[in-house]
Amino acid sequence: MGFQLAPTAAAEGFRLEAHDSVGSTNAIALERARAGDLGKLWVVSKKQESGRGRRGRAWATPEGNLAATLLLIVDRDLKTAATLGFVAGLALSDALEAVVPGRVAIAADGAGDRRGNRFELKWPNDVLAKGAKMAGILLESTMLDADRFALAIGIGVNVVAHPEDVPYPATSLKALGADCAAETLFLALSDAWSENMRLWNEGRGLELIRQRWLAHAAGLGGQVAVRVEGNVVRGVFETIDEDCRFVIRDDTGAVHKIAAGDVHFGAVASASAT
Fold it and tell me: Which ranges of the chain have pLDDT less than 70?
């Protein structure tokens, strides 16, 4: 089976551009926007040669994994549009639950989840299984004119392989015992995106998205450390606020609201955040 859009996505006007191999799906999506594309375009591939993660880190997508980018043309403020990263996390979590058989037991460890979620969301943009990173989300934007910008929402999923030489635990669907093709996962993702985008409702439904995200949040209520511009903030992960900032209460009772940073859980949080 090749890549296909879910009928719900096609009915809502989403389009699909599929590749066997790409440099970066985000880069292609932004190129299409600069060339005049009107958005609602999914760019997908099972192999990505030069994908990127947060802070310019490489994100490898070997043959059989999923690289997908949704291009949107946005005429609202960038701060609101940035919360679509949380929509993407929920959509991917929903898609994974839809395609991974219930017999595949993915008991959480590491960050520790007690709510029965097989897939957890790590602030701001990772999806975990058994405490290990299985997917990452990267938002990139470019101004088109005074009133509009293009937003590329990149989603990379370890379907058949995961990196071994990284400083954090990583896994893949195959390693977890799930036999799922990238095409099958994308079909479910395009459907789940449409549903969660409707809930977001151009930002008006952000509180509902925030509550749904918290129900899947990794490490909620536990000890965390966040590296922010060379400094480390430690404490208890209490919530994400109305602007989706990461909220920590430290040992003195002071509350820290963090807009960007690298989060570490458990023993790593207690010792260091390097």
Answer: 1, 50-60, 76, 103-116, 266-274
Distance CA 220, CA 237 (A): 5
Residue 61 exposed, middle or buried by CB count within 10 Å (0-12, 13-18, 19+): buried
Cis-peptide, bond into residue 124, ω within 30° of zero: yes
Residue 115 has a pLDDT of: 57
Half-sphere exposure in the Cβ direction for 192 (13 Å, CA)? 20
Name the pTM for this structure.
Answer: 0.90
The CATH number of 223-271, from 3.30.2270.10, 3.40.50.300, 2.30.30.100, 1.10.150.120, is 2.30.30.100
Q: Where in the chain is the domain with CATH 2.30.30.100?
A: 223-271
Q: What is the pLDDT of residues 60-77, one digit of tens each?
A: 678 899 999 999 999 868
